[in-house]
Amino acid sequence: MNTLKLVVVDDEPDMAGFVHDVAEQAGFAVEQFHNADVFREQYKPCADVIVLDLMMPGTDGVELIRFLSEVGCDSLLVLISGFDPGVLHSAQKLAIEHGLNIAGSLSKPFRHHELQQLLHGLSISPRRPSHTTPDKPLVVDELREALKSDQLVVHYQPQLSIRDRSLVGAEALVRWQHPTHGLLGPELFITMAERHGLIDDLTWVVLQQAMQQCRNWLDNDLKIRVAVNMSATTLKHLELPERIHQLVRKYRLQPSQIVLEVTENALMQELIKSLDILTRLRMKNFRLSIDDFGTGYSSMVQLHRAPFSEIKIDRSFIMEMDYDAEARAIVETIIMLGDKLGMSVIAEGVETQAEWDRLAALGCGTVQGYLVAKPMPAADFTDWLAQHYSRNPESTI
């Protein structure tokens, strides 16, 4: 097994040496940089973890965050700083917006056990499915052909009850089985679909496949609730509630078996139409989930306006809550809010047992993430479910 590599960038040699010693004890091979410009000049995309100080002379940590984003860094990033927690928190948010993998943060001075606990809790194994990356950019005509020739497939990620590990439902997540490039993740084609007016067609492909799979599971005595993401474009069509209801009748399902996930930003694009559509969907007994809750501009207002039945806590808060008091407070508040409003609460992106335990202590009802299982084809999902219940006989579907 290859030794994991950690790089620490801190202009204080004593602090860098301290991080070096703790990381070595945790099993990392460690490289130190006491100068941000030297780190930038000698950067190589080989570190599993980068520990980065924000306050450095010359090039500071925020400039390095920008640099790491520009070079496509996929290392786990740990921020350290002697600034007040608000600055550290803002830097974390900035790094996330840049697409970097934030693993946590520590305020100086921190103790040996705090850094040790953070490093031991890192999920270093791949955080996403090993989708292929095309040698050349995809073009929209390929996506049009994919929609016509059934190249888009749906994978399912289970959602479990924290209380007894029973299955609550599954989220339907689209993939592209490209004839030459292999399995492609949604980050490679969703934006293209939105830009070229194909997202509506794509959404209906996912809905059809998800409902067909629900029917197949029912025919095998498995009643599984499935969540489907709805795009902002689709939420502008006033005939949506009746179309989805017709699809449910076609596959002889109950509307309550389908959860429609809507982001706050999608809701805001055409608010009046969105509220019209969502209200009618709830009247037809579909479940509605507000996705990525807390990342929009007016979360509380949306909960008051729209008839949601479920809140999904954004993964950015989950991954930060062990080391960020503000993220932890947000998670706790969302769980409490859901309880007060009689709404289900799902934490997404749960990757460690520590995150599961903390969510359980806070009273969260349902979790979803790599700790439970990665998204998988329907046949694999059925096999996974059988194995899960053989290991957890006290659970029920």
General description of the model:
The protein has helices at residues 13-25, 36-41, 61-70, 85-97, 112-120, 140-148, 190-195, 199-219, 240-250, 264-269, 271-283, 299-305, 315-320, 325-341, 353-362, 378-391; strands at residues 5-9, 29-33, 49-53, 76-81, 101-107, 152-161, 167-178, 182-184, 226-229, 258-263, 287-293, 310-313, 344-348, 366-368. It has 397 residues and is of the alpha/beta class. It folds into 2 domains: 5-120, 3-Layer(aba) Sandwich (Rossmann fold), CATH 3.40.50; 140-391, TIM Barrel. It has an 8-stranded mixed barrel with strand order 6-7-9-10-11-12-13-14, surrounded by 4 helices. Strands 2-1-3-4-5 form a 5-stranded parallel sheet, sandwiched between helices. Helix 9 (240-250) links the parallel strand 9 (226-229) and strand 10.
In short:
This protein is 43% helix and 21% strand.
List the defining traits of the structure above:
21% strand, 397 residues, 8-stranded mixed beta barrel, 16 helices, alpha/beta
The sequence of SSEs as H and E is EHEHEHEHEHHEEEHHEHEHHEHEHHEHEH
The residue-averaged pLDDT reads 88
The dominant shape is globular
CATH fold-level label of the largest domain: TIM Barrel
Please identify the top-level CATH class of the largest domain.
Alpha Beta
